[in-house]
Design goal:
The protein has 184 residues and is mainly alpha-helical. Helix content is 37%, strand content 9%. The protein has three domains: 102 residues, no CATH class; 47 residues, no CATH class; 32 residues, no CATH class. The protein has a three-stranded antiparallel sheet with strand order 1-3-2. It starts with 9 loop residues before the first helix and ends in an 11-residue tail after the last helix. The relative contact order is 0.08.
């Protein structure tokens, strides 16, 4: 299986194109990746995969595609797509891995959470994450800013995080809450 990749500013780039041209461009990217065509779209095959092939002229005029005679060459967002050569190497590697017993078993990682340890696995990713439910990465190390702040005591001897939690409880339970009037 291949994947078509678009940058997060893709919709900004195609703002001035017609809907038909945007759709044709995306269909062309998907078709090219699916068939490992390296962003080359044979004109005679467009009726097989394109809803509105007539929008190709708009894409050529906008500089998103180039007319190369018998085929169109996708220019815009072509650099984000994997090449045929890369995909064939990946497929070969996956076949070798499958023949040797497949992927290694997923390693469960413990997560730090106020509710106790949890396990987390991430597909195809070797990144180990540690979450504690506060929105911060991991519990911190001695000497870190977060650890120093977490260990600070306020005037009453309580922890800074405990005061923050108390403020949140007050805010959510207070009848004079600033949220009043925003409920829908």
């Amino acid at each position: 299986m291949t994947w078509t990749k678009l940058s997060d500013d893709f919709s900004d780039d195609c703002w001035e194109l017609s809907d038909a041209a945007v759709r044709l461009h995306m269909e062309g990217l998907v078709w090219s990746n699916r068939k490992l065509l390296d962003c080359r779209l044979v004109k005679d095959d467009m009726v097989r995969w394109a809803k509105r092939p007539g929008a190709a002229e708009e894409l050529v005029n906008a500089g998103w595609w180039r007319d190369e005679g018998d085929y169109y060459l996708i220019v815009h967002h072509a650099r984000y797509q994997r090449t045929r050569e890369v995909m064939l190497k990946l497929q070969e590697r996956n076949q070798r891995n499958g023949a040797s017993g497949g992927r290694p078993p997923k390693v469960a990682r413990e997560r730090f959470s106020p509710r106790g340890p949890q396990t987390e696995t991430q597909l195809g990713c070797q990144v180990e994450t540690q979450r504690d439910g506060t929105g911060r990465d991991g519990p911190g190390r001695e000497g870190d800013q977060l650890t120093k702040r977490d260990n600070e005591k306020n005037e009453d001897g309580g922890s800074v995080d405990a005061d923050c939690a108390a403020d949140l409880r007050d805010w959510y339970s207070d009848d004079e809450s600033p949220r009043r009037g925003y409920e829908s």
